[in-house]
Amino acid sequence: MGSDCGPGGSQSRAVWCAHVDGWTTLYTNCDQANRPSNQQNCFRVCDWHKDLYDWHLGAWSQCVSVSPRTFGGMRPYVCHGGEEGIQTREVGCTLKADESPGEDAICEYFEPKPRLEQACLIPCPQDCVVSEFTPWTSCSKTCGTGLQNRVRSVLVPPLFGGSACPNLTEFQTCKPGPCKGPEGIYSLRLGPWTSCSLPVTRPVRQAKRRKGKGGGRERPGVKDPDTRELIQKKRTRNRLNRQESPFWDIQVGYQSRAVSCAHRNGSTVGLSLCQPRELPLTIQSCILPKDCELSDWSAWGHCSKDCSDPNPNSPRGQRSRSRRVLQFAVGDGEKCPASEEAEPCEPEGDGVPPCATYTWRTTEWSDCRVDTLLSQQDRRRSNQTGLCGGGLQNREVYCVQGNAELLTYLNNLKDKDSQIPNQQKPSDPPHLSISFEITASRPVESQLCGGPIHDTSQLCLIPCPIECDVSPWGAWGPCTYENCSVQEGKKGFKLRKREISNEPTGGAGNCPHLVEAIPCEDPSCWDWQLVRLDECVSDRELPCGPGTQIPQVRCVNSTGDAVNAELCGGTPVPEPIVCLVPCPKDCVLSDWTSWSSCSQTCSSKTMEGKQMRTRSILAYNAGEGGDMCPTTSSLQEVRNCNEHACTVYHWQTGPWGPCTEDPSASALNTSTGSWSAAGLKASGACSQGMQTRKVICVRVNVGQVPPKKCPESPRPGTLRPCRMPCKKDCIVTPFSNWTQCSPTCDEAGNIQKKKQSRKRVVLQLPANGGLECPEVLEEEKDCEAVKVCPGYRWKTHKWRRCQLVPWHIREDSPGAQETCGPGLQTRAVSCRKLDGAQADMGDCLQYASSIPPVTQRCQLPCQDDCQLTNWSKFSSCTVDCVGVRTRKRALVGRSKKKDRCKNTQMYPLSETQYCPCDKYNAQPVGNWSDCILAGGDHVESLLGMKVQGDVKECGQGYRYQAMVCYDQDNRLVETSRCNSHGYIEEACIIACPSDCKLSEWSNWSRCSKSCGSGVKVRSKWLREKPYNGGRPCPKLDHINQVYEVVPCVSDCTQYVWVAEPWSVWKVSNVDLKENCGEGVQTRKVRCMLNTVDGPSESVEDYLCDPEDMPLGTRGSRLPCPEDCVLSDWGPWNRCSRVTITRPP
């Protein structure tokens, strides 16, 4: 059936016997033991499998060459532009859910299998190209033996089998000079840093310093209000710049570590043995670590859920609380934990309204849809046959609020109670009688509905149309009056009938005519009908010899029904029939067979109908005294039949017209469009209509004739009642609520335009002239944008001066100086709104990025360091392009007298550069583009280019590389200043693709089935594979052929086997005296074209079903004298009804 999908199906195919030359022969000529199976298990694919399975494409393998590397073994292969290759990949049908493999036939049902191989082009090998080595680095050691290295870079990597790159790094040993002392015996050992701590005297000094400053007293003598306000603002700004913030208490301390000199045996020795080496830092500034401090938790907020739900599995609400940061973590202090937490909750108190409940609703099922399978149909018939079989129906599932009407009622009731506050409320609530007008519910967001979702698709079945099948025509009946109650004139009709053997779709009106009539003379309404013949009784009461058979008859009317025998009184009763009772030694003959069907339906001057019947010899005569067997010609009889003229009439009907409203019917054609709460359509009454059709009298092989030529009694009706199709209006839900607008500000505080939408769902589609659906089912509008985005950012203040470790702590460190060295500096950080206004720190913690650093390491220069002024501005240029400009700086202080500071290579005091000019430097940048075909100006014939219309596919083209333009300062400027278009070009070639080439279609084969449904095949074979991206070949078999298979149907009654009468027995072990024993009979079996009037002409045997072919020979035993001889079995009589009683 069409609804059966998946594994467990079966496939059948036609299997027939064929000669080696290809023509079909009898199945008995083939070895039955080796006959292939005509059925196999299969996976039945349905349309909805397309969403479950898909082709899984593996990666293309590396391009492998298909051409030899040398030609004739004499000359080495030289690459010119590349060589042809081939690459492959794995392709398989997989289940999308878990990528498990499936049968390829499933995916091939929807889409041909992607190609497994393709031609490719292997470019010529590209060897690795490297740059020159850089200079050697300085020696890794200042004394003894060290290492130095140099490097080079890859300019062009190896491609397509080119030679690999050489080493990019080289090392060599170096010996700057001998070391003072045994080399490698002593080494420095560093201990861990101590924890950060404050000097003991620092708090006391800070307290004295603050006390001495006098706090925030105003300076005497400043009386001007504006000046006083400026001073106050500066003091406030300085206070913010300090690190003493309510959120940060940053204190700079110090930490130290031990440095010792160790012998290679592990013992500690004096530091002097490890010198002269620059000792590492032993004391450094640090930030005193402080843990994060938080305030107490605030009270719990309101529960987000404001309704009661008796379902224990319903989602619970959330309530939250928060706490503030009192002290941020400083240094290595413990970081701040979460400042917010939430917990589930349920609303408390009386008068909590019930929660909204949500449920799934569905629209009506769509019409059953069957997709056409063009690859399995004969395209010449695809427009004539309707689609039927297994299909798919869809519907939409949407979420609605289930108790919206109840909540609306309760809210209205609550509003009424609030308007009458002084009214005394009863202790018991009154019983509510609630009635609602059920309408289509408004759709809501799908995530509100829980539980399993309804199916959105289901399998369906469109019954395939059943063609009308009729039986062969019966024999012509007697000549009767058209109306036996009025027997006038001497003209009547002979009728012949056929019956419907297979009721078609749409009723018997779609069948061909079932009655034909021919005019005749001397009609009669009643006649004698032979029921049976009595047994043959010999004359003169002898045991054998000539005799008679008495016919048993009955009187019947023109329709074959038995009537009173008196009505046939005017017609003579059939006479007894002469017969023969065989004697023991007589030749024994079988009974006559029934008369064959008439060879013609009518008779004319050039043709006449014939019928034949035969009998066979059952036993030969047994010597003298017995009657001899008749000759072969006497074993068959021929008689004329259908001797009437070829003038046949019948009634022909046209198709029924549309159902139109019957004005006489009382019912009105109402529109059905109501929708119940469960989503079901309500049925309504529809009016009674009428259908008409055309009925004409037709003469066979002539056409329409006047109606009086056909008998009136079998005339079909021209009018019949029908039911008018009910109108259905389109039903849609109300619009859903507008979707929520997401925040319209990004992290940078920019306003973003957002949209919100709403939709409605079509519950019922219109039909039969009902109201159409509205055009707009979805609406969209812009969200209301905020005027200013509420954003937050961190503001960093100036770094404070570099703070060193107190001198009294580091004065004993080697090389330490009081006013210089490494230190730490801090700065304040505050929270601001995007417009610059002050904001709470918690807002920046929640909405802004991470906190900027508030400390950093710094360096105060020492007197021994080389100190220089800042660079001056460049001098002005007097002449462009050929002139130069300079800038200078100078040594300051004691640096002027230090020789190492006078080293201009390490500390240059001037810089010179060319003056900017209009002569710019163009340089390529980036990779080459793909090869782009040239325009139409190039001569295509010279380039061997293929052209499709005006679109070139291959040939000579150009590739491009971007160019940039630099000025004298190596700054990017417009490419036009370098007189460049922004790119350079060079010629390239795109190899022309070669499409897959197949032969022309072969002729269609014969239908695989001579009776019923089969297939016929035609094929193409591969002539040339595709190259260079040409169109791929379709799926080919192992012998590089592609097939097209289309169904074919052979009428099982079009060709039939006709067997001639059995021949005379031929005794194999012949005894001429007795002429009896084992023998054989033969007959000729022919395949004949079957027409309405029976088999007409012989055709080739392959057109008939070989499995239905009657036997052409049969063996048996020919009775000998004195043997009992029996005739063939007669037909079975009618089954009598037998009642079977089951025992208790």
Q: Give the termini distance in whole angstroms.
A: 42 Å
> Which consecutive residue ranges, at least 5 long each, have pLDDT under 50?
68-76, 214-219, 372-385, 421-438, 666-685, 936-951, 1138-1144
Q: What is the number of E strands?
A: 72
Gross morphology is elongated
SS element count, helices: 7
**Largest sheet composition:** 5 strands, antiparallel
Structural class: mainly beta
Strand content: 25-35%
Radius of gyration: 55 Å
Can you give the helix content as a percent range? under 10%
- Summarize model confidence as the mean pLDDT: 75
Description:
A hairpin with a 4-residue loop joins β14 (259-263) and β15. The longest helix has 17 residues, at 225-241. Helices cover 6% and strands 31% of the residues. It has 1144 residues and is mostly beta strands. Residues 68-76, 214-219, 372-385, 421-438, 666-685, 936-951 and 1138-1144 have low confidence and may be disordered. Strands 57, 58, 61, 62 and 63 form a 5-stranded antiparallel β-sheet that branches. The radius of gyration is 55 Å and the shape is elongated.
In short:
The protein is mainly β. Strands 57, 58, 61, 62 and 63 form a five-stranded antiparallel β-sheet that branches. A three-stranded antiparallel β-sheet has the order 4-5-7, with no helix packed on it.
List keywords for this structure.
about 5% helix; about 1150 residues; mainly beta
Show the helix and strand layout.
Layout: E1 6-12, E2 39-44, E3 53-57, E4 64-65, E5 83-88, E6 91-95, H1 104-110, E7 117-122, E8 129-130, E9 144-151, E10 154-156, E11 169-177, E12 186-190, H2 202-213, H3 225-241, E13 252-256, E14 259-263, E15 268-269, E16 283-287, E17 293-294, E18 317-322, E19 325-327, E20 340-345, E21 358-362, E22 389-394, E23 397-401, H4 404-419, E24 443-444, E25 457-462, E26 469-470, E27 491-497, E28 500-502, E29 515-521, E30 526-533, E31 537-538, E32 545-549, E33 551-557, E34 577-581, E35 588-589, E36 609-614, E37 617-619, E38 636-641, E39 649-653, E40 660-661, E41 671-672, E42 688-692, E43 695-699, E44 703-705, E45 719-723, E46 727-728, E47 731-732, E48 755-759, E49 762-764, E50 778-782, E51 792-796, H5 807-810, E52 821-826, E53 829-833, H6 841-847, E54 855-860, E55 884-888, E56 910-914, E57 921-925, E58 932-933, H7 940-943, E59 947-948, E60 951-952, E61 955-966, E62 972-973, E63 983-990, E64 997-998, E65 1012-1024, E66 1041-1050, E67 1055-1059, E68 1066-1067, E69 1077-1082, E70 1085-1091, E71 1094-1098, E72 1113-1118
Parallel strand pairs: 41-46
Antiparallel strand pairs: 1-2, 3-6, 4-5, 5-7, 8-10, 9-11, 12-14, 13-16, 14-15, 17-19, 18-20, 21-23, 22-25, 23-24, 26-28, 27-29, 30-33, 31-32, 32-34, 35-37, 36-38, 39-43, 40-42, 42-45, 43-44, 47-49, 48-50, 51-53, 52-54, 55-56, 57-61, 58-61, 59-60, 61-62, 61-63, 64-65, 65-66, 67-70, 68-69, 69-72, ...
